[in-house]
Design goal:
310 residues; TIM Barrel; 41% helix; binds NADP nicotinamide-adenine-dinucleotide phosphate
Length: 310
């Protein structure tokens, strides 16, 4: 599979760190501590977005990466608000560059599908940013597989390509396994999936009355509402205790293990929370443990029927 790398050729690490909490749930001090811990653990891949924390995420990340920028792969996203028009992408991307004080940002993702803007307009804009040297790779996030392939055909006509996907993917959100991950393997596209802990559910803390995003943010409460997801989180904690890892370590290592995954995007609000996710960098699940974790939550139905005849 194509290896994404930093401007000086350093390959992306097997974990990416997401700065979505920087400047909000993680203040500047906690953010810097987490950045330093990531670098000490060998992480070279960092993720943010124009829309995160009113710009503080990009601003803080830009400050932290400045002294060692060329050895890092830095991603941001455009178009979560305002759509994927040329005008919106160019305006928000310029703001992202200024916040981060970077001439070039390695990966620019479209944050989500925009059916209202012609793909040709969106991808001509991305191709131009690339040929101007302002971005190195094009990514898309929250796209369905058919949307990726449709956009990839438009990109190919312009002499470029989608290099990386950013779908949601964790033990209780396995939709990416059905079409996106096999497509990415077949098409040689990197994948940096987000929410490996299900927004914190898979740490096991909610089973013991803990609080966090699921109790504070109604979008996450709805996303992880089903009892079956909470049951899987409890069972993951039991299994993790049996094998001597934190549940979060096991959850991130599980997401990392899929052959279509390049680097799960880990995140936290402070250093203490971050440690078990970071520990997953050194944990390669063997086949038996991988299957035991997988079995804790059902896989979605396959993309086609009649597989019994194959
Ligand atoms: N493209 C997209 O649409 C999209 C969407 C979401 C995220 N992302 C990217 O992916 C990154 C990671 O996503 P995510 O934050 O959803 O990942 P996640 O790993 O599923 O959830 C991280 C959250 O879990 C909780 N947590 C983590 N470790 C913990 C611990 N040891 N003990 C207790 N709680 C713990 C914390 O939230 P609480 O303390 O609040 O519980 C933390 O912020 C983001 O930073 C962002 O860069 C992208």
């Amino acid at each position: 599979m194509t290896q994404l790398c930093s401007p000086d050729g350093t390959p992306v690490s097997s974990l990416c760190f997401g700065a979505m909490q920087f400047g909000d749930r993680a203040d500047a001090t906690a953010s810097r501590e987490m950045y330093k811990a990531c670098r000490a653990a060998g992480i070279t891949f960092f993720d943010t977005a124009h829309v995160y924390t009113g710009g503080a995420s990009e601003t803080l990340l830009g400050q932290f990466v400045a002294p060692e920028r060329d050895g890092l792969t830095i991603a941001t996203k455009a178009g979560y608000t305002g759509g994927s028009s040329r005008a919106n992408i160019l305006a928000t991307f310029e703001e992202s560059r200024q916040r981060m004080k970077l001439d070039q940002i390695d990966i620019l993702y479209l944050h989500r599908w925009d059916g209202a803007v012609p793909l040709a307009e969106t991808f001509e804009t991305l191709a131009q940013l690339q040929s101007d040297g302002k971005i190195r790779y094009i990514g898309v996030s929250n796209f369905a597989a058919w949307q990726v392939m449709k956009a990839q055909a438009v990109a190919a006509d312009l002499g470029t390509r989608i290099d990386i996907l950013q779908p949601m993917y964790n033990l209780v959100k396995k939709q990416a396994e059905v079409e996106l991950l096999p497509m990415a393997q077949d098409q040689d596209i990197a994948v940096a999936p987000y929410s490996p802990l299900g927004g914190g559910l898979l740490t096991g803390k909610y089973a013991s009355g803990g609080t966090g995003r699921l109790s504070e943010d109604s979008r996450y409460a709805a996303r992880y509402a089903p009892d079956a997801m909470h049951k899987a989180a409890r069972e993951l904690s039991t299994l993790a205790a049996e094998v001597g890892h934190a549940p979060a370590t096991l959850a991130v290592a599980w997401a990392k293990r899929h052959p279509g995954v390049t680097a799960p995007i880990i995140s936290a609000r402070n250093l203490e929370q971050l440690q078990p996710s970071l520990a997953a960098a050194a944990l390669d699940l063997d086949e038996a443990l991988y299957h035991r974790v997988s079995a804790l939550y059902p896989a979605p139905p396959p993309a086609t029927d009649r597989l019994e005849e194959a």
